[in-house]
Structures are given as C-alpha cells and as structure tokens.
Give the backbone structure.
Amino acid sequence: VTLPRWMRSSVYKGYSALFGCNLDEVEGELEDFANLGEFFTRRLKEGARPICMDPNALASPVDGRILCFGKLIEDDGDIIEQVKGVRYKLSALLGERNASYLADVAANAAAQSPRRDLYHCIIYLAPGDYHGYHSPVDMVIKERLHIPGYMMSVSTFIVPKIPGLFALNERIVLRGEWGHGFFAYCPVAATNVGNMTLDFDDAVVTNRSSQSHRSAVSHKSYQNQGGIRKKRGDMIGFFRLGSTVVMLFESPSFRFSVEPGQKVQLGEKLGSIVQ
C-alpha cells in the first residue's frame, strides 16, 4: 500500500522503534520509501558494515541472531542441529540432487591430509534487521536449487518446536566452493517472507500459491558461465521482512568465535580456521 509522503516518516519511525531498526544507517530519506515493503528491503549506507577480510574466516552474511553452529554430528554426516537438541536430515534441507554429492564431499573430506570436516551455521533475521543477504567468503556458486515449501514461522519461539522446519519451508540452495572446499548457502523463507531474490538470477520466482509450484523443484547450473563469483560481503539477494540463512561448509579444523543467541551484524567474524 503506497503511503502518502507526509505519513511515511512517522510510520517508519514507529516501526523502527517497535522492532529496533537503526535509522542512522539507512541509505536515502525515509520519505523516499513508498511503502513498508520498500522500507523492509532498505539498503545500508556505504561503509555501515565493515567486512572481515581474513581469508580463513567466515564473515556473517546477514544481520541476525545465531541459532546454532558446529561440526556435523560425527556418528551421521547427514544429521544437523536446527537448535540445540533438535536435529534433522541435512539431505532433506539441501534436496535430493545434493544428497549424493554431499556424501562424496564428506567421504573425500575425511580422507584429506590434513583432514577436513563439514561445519554448519544458522542465523535468524528478525523483522527489524537489515534484510539483505551477502556472501560470507570469497566463493564460486556453481548450482542453484529452488525448493518450494511451507511458509511457517522461523521465530526463535517456533524453531525448537518443529524438527526439520528449515527443510519444510520454501528455500533456495546455492552450492559451490570456497578456498577450503565445498560451500552451501541456503536462504529459507518464512511467514510473510516468501519473496526471496537473487541479484544474479531473475528466473527464481518464490512465494507462489499454486499446487504445481509447491511441488516443482527448479534447478540451474552456472557451470557454463564458469560459476557465479562472489567476494566476501558481495550482495547475493534480499528477504522481504526477515527469515533465516543456513550455511554448510568444508574446512580444516574450524573454531567458531560466537555463541548461540548472540546478535551479529553483516561482515562480523563468526570464526576461523585454527592455524
């Protein structure tokens, strides 16, 4: 709904007070946002988010709150924690196309010298957060899966109550590599956040209600382009409102420097390879 120009500043300031938005870092004037949808997808001023440039580190791809992180559970490389004590199958999250590939990655990683392991990190975006999602490392994106699904809430209250929630909701799975091996990056939709965009792939259309859309997994390979190359901090896409990003990556011994429940900002160091 387009708001009268005289009303916009008051509406957005009220929303910001309710959800904790920092208006000092917003690019442009409040009156220039025609509606709440535009304000939700606001850009940040240049330099508002310093990016950790350590090539052995993982930078936060979003503003959000840490839900869970760690090494994949040793007794079953296909099991991942959603939050502490709630587990689900990783292959369900990433889709059948990636399941066998992931098994090969895990087997090859274990045989490397020095050994590599698979790690994961999940970050939740609240309604007041900046809603762009960016690259956490220098990476090459080789494939994209769009997996339709539900639009259930991913709030910190709901997540512990529905095992496999992230594998049930609509999501985009980007599979590629970084300097230390495999890297998967997965934006997950939620209630009021079905619209997700990729800045390099306009063919992705999310949040359709038709039955055919809900059951149709779409795939695209970027191999013929040599992959989509992203530097750490580069824009990948936008959520409409807030949701969740799940990351899975291969690495030599990796140590996280954050805690569950911790608030982080785009570009902040989440951890690094132990030298």
About this structure: DSSP finds six helices and 17 strands in the chain.
